[in-house]
């Protein structure tokens, strides 16, 4: 990554994503427009990763990874809320499906692939146990509160909270996530700093203030373009899912996967460069942000619209979530990882995908 100049593609793809998005708004998501949207989306993802890395190199860890996690999650939340407002009755379970899919994609897909690729290249990698443990403690509390407790808190409503319970759950989610960010960036920042490696990029001069500000602007342009294109592609995705006769919950999986692409690529690149701590900061941080920010937002929308919000997972998904948290505690309990842990997480992710398509 060069701090001296910005390559043409890093601004061309964000601009292209907006142009294709305008084309989709005018002409609708037809075959050709959908194909262009898909190409522009992936180009904008690569641009977003580049600009996030420029910012991270300037501000240092863990602030750099926090910037990307917060930016992606904020816009992901806006996407979910916009879809809920458009069809509140039909999308009562969209937030649950998307949040659960994001947690499984991050904790098993992204983490598993990062551990596998990093282990294959460097044999064994190290990270800060305290940072991973702090993230897992908060993640366990958030997932239980948001995705499991609704099944038991008000039995007469099914997998949903009453209005007072929903307000309380949203408030606690914000408090938990805010406490984690405070610990990560202020109180115990050293828990989340990368383990020392021979990575040459760390020793490069950081980019200038002007370059960093330009990347910050282009990062936001890229992320808005990514989410806009993801929303434009959603009808095509829903039509395809209907034709394939697979569960509607797969829509949430697709939305989460598209929005998490920038973080996934950044995490994989960091793992390959033997910066596993940075990779875990991105992965676990995005999982926490997804729940901590999305649940309060969709709770507020649900209350305003007067529509029931289905949050509780069924028994199958609860089991997948439980084994994910259990295996994660073991994986991050030693401070060292190999390809074996990566394979285990990827197999759990494969199980999640299989049962999502063939319940």
Automatic annotation (TrEMBL):
The chain crosses the membrane at residues 18-51, 63-87, 99-120, 132-154, 166-186, 207-229, 249-268, 280-306, 318-335, 342-358. One of its GO terms (cellular component) is plasma membrane. Pfam families: Na_Ca_ex. It comes from the Bacteria. Residues 33-185, 215-357 form the Sodium/calcium exchanger membrane region domain. Keywords: Membrane, Transmembrane, Transmembrane helix. It is found in: Membrane. The keyword Iron does not apply. GO terms for molecular function: potassium:proton antiporter activity; sodium:proton antiporter activity. It is a multi-pass membrane protein. The keyword Transmembrane applies. This is Ionic transporter y4hA. It comes from Bradyrhizobium arachidis.
